[in-house]
Write a structure and sequence with these properties.
About 30% of the residues lie in helices and about 25% in strands. With about 525 residues, it is of the alpha/beta class. About 50% of the residues are buried.
């Protein structure tokens, strides 16, 4: 592979960029050139001990961050850079250049994957699977690094199934599952990545805290952050994002809204919030006006209980969240002491002592990280286990040791329908706070406006911006195609019952058998 001596003029991608997008593309391309990757000439040089760099590309919703990220990914692939997916990595080659595209949560990563960008979670890059040696031979064969293996107990037909699956979906765990193997058969554990990688693109970087950024900088000599400066900052950063602390000239801003998004009434509302003179009542009149003109905005008198099963109501206050969840369960006829299949949950973290670090890694690597959205499927394979569907995960259906807590209004103690000694902890997910909704998107989003009014009346600010405006911006931009602005504290009765028929496993379910200590 050849190395260019000087950067050539960057070839414009096929997509039509705005001026600020083109400038950002060229700036990132120059950063990659300094690291030995020439996008203009599609050529690579071996990775060197070059100075580490962090660059940020920031812009509000609709400014083209994802379009830019996708274009850079395609140019890197065309230059011969290998993608690191967090799935299975072949043996390291000296001349290999790599790219990992990351997001903080499974849901955020799945949003990118639906747009053709092969993203994975930050956690799946920080921690890598340890394969059983005999099944690693299958992985090497599937990825073109070895010959077709002979595995005791595995038929030729099973290997054919694995190969056929991999040709359709380039997922080693999925292919092994297609051969009839479960995760506990071929993955023996997880380990912290020891060796650095190469290029890292991080979407939704407004969700990162300093510790996460430090972890990423230890692994990626060249790091490009993509984020929205109008979102809510992580707790503890006093309204700042990690990219706000980068040095002079290290933050590129996309200010223009991309042409194809300009007729989107949802984005129009989101960007109207930047007007410092706009008050809450004025904004609600804008929402009502938009609803009269376009069916993508709905002025709703009641919360839709059917939608809550897959798209939570977004609220500010915890008390509101608990009341809405209680009303949702009552409307669906859920018993007081048991969950129904199809009820939504949100992972609230992992309850394991430090001595069970490997088990914590296993749970998190399967997608059960704080904030992950899951759907309850039923009782698990062992007492204290629950079968769940992890929304956005590539292998979504698992049976895991679970501690499920359902909070009730005016009660200090939640009821617990599933209680392992330790494992993944869950809260109900029919309503979530706007803070926890960051990084996620849904086809239709319901925003509980009375809570935003309460935030406006409280007069609180974050980084000089009224809190209600930041909350409204984040909530509104979670909607992909339809926004429901709910103005009354009422719940419409569901038309359909809860169901799991829409949740199709991508492979056979995985069983996290190691989670309950003996």
């Amino acid at each position: 592979m050849t190395q260019s001596l000087a950067p050539a003029a960057t070839q414009a991608p096929a997509l039509v960029f705005s001026e600020d997008q083109a400038e950002a593309y060229d700036r990132v391309a120059a950063e990659l050139f300094a690291a030995g990757i020439d996008l203009a000439n599609a050529s690579l040089s071996p990775m060197s001990e070059a100075k580490a760099s962090v660059l940020a590309v920031v812009g509000k919703a609709g400014s083209g961050k994802t379009m830019l990220l996708a274009s850079l990914y395609k140019a890197l692939a065309a230059a011969g850079v290998d993608l690191v997916s967090g799935d299975y990595e072949p043996k390291k080659r000296k001349d290999r250049r790599t790219l990992a595209i990351l997001a903080p949560t499974n849901k955020a990563a799945s949003v990118l994957r639906m747009r053709g960008v092969p993203a994975t979670t930050i956690h799946r890059i920080l921690y890598t699977p340890v394969y059983d040696p005999q099944y690693e031979k299958i992985a090497e064969w599937l990825t073109g690094q070895g010959n077709r293996p002979v595995i005791e107990g595995l038929t030729e037909l099973a290997l054919d199934r694995a190969h056929a699956f991999y040709q359709t979906v380039a997922s080693v765990p999925g292919a092994l599952a297609a051969a009839g193997l479960r995760g506990s058969d071929f993955i023996k554990g997880w380990k912290r990545r020891e060796e650095p990688l190469d290029i890292g693109f991080v979407d939704e970087s407004s969700m990162l805290d300093e510790r996460a950024l430090t972890d990423l900088r230890e692994i990626f000599p060249t790091l490009v952050l993509f984020g929205d400066p109008a979102q809510l900052a992580p707790v503890g950063l006093s309204g700042e994002m990690v990219f706000d602390r980068l040095g002079e000239g290290r933050k590129l801003t996309l200010s223009r809204i991309h042409r194809q998004e300009q007729d989107n009434p949802i984005l129009d509302l989101a960007h109207a919030l930047a007007d410092p003179d706009l008050g809450f009542d004025d904004f609600e009149r804008m929402v009502q006006s938009a609803a009269r003109k376009d069916d993508r905005v709905v002025w709703a008198e009641r919360v839709d209980a059917d939608l809550m099963a897959r798209s939570p109501v977004l609220v500010w206050r915890n008390a509101t969240r608990i009341r809405l969840i209680t009303a949702f369960r009552a409307a669906h006829g859920a018993p007081d002491d048991e969950l129904l299949a199809g009820e939504p949950l949100v992972c609230d973290g992992i309850e394991l002592p430090l001595k069970h670090r490997k088990k914590r890694i296993d749970l998190e690597a399967r997608g059960l990280i704080k904030g992950a959205q899951v759907i309850y499927l039923g009782h698990g394979s062992r007492p204290g286990f629950a079968k769940i569907h992890v929304v956005g995960a590539e292998d979504p259906q698992v049976s895991a040791a679970s501690i499920i807590k359902i909070e009730r209004p005016d009660e200090d103690e939640p009821f617990i329908p599933s209680a392992a000694t330790m494992g993944a902890a869950f809260l109900h997910g029919a309503a979530v706070t706007i803070h926890k909704a960051q990084g996620s998107q849904w086809e239709t989003v319901q925003v509980f406006a009375p809570d935003l009014y309460a935030a406006a009346m409280a007069g609180r600010s974050e980084a000089g911006v009224p809190l209600w405006k930041r909350l409204a911006y984040v909530a509104i931009t979670r909607a992909e195609n339809r926004l429901m602005w709910v103005v009354r504290n009422r719940l419409a009765r569901p038309v359909e019952g809860l169901s799991v028929a829409d949740l199709k496993p991508l492979s056979v379910p995985l069983t996290l058998q190691s989670q309950e200590p003996s």
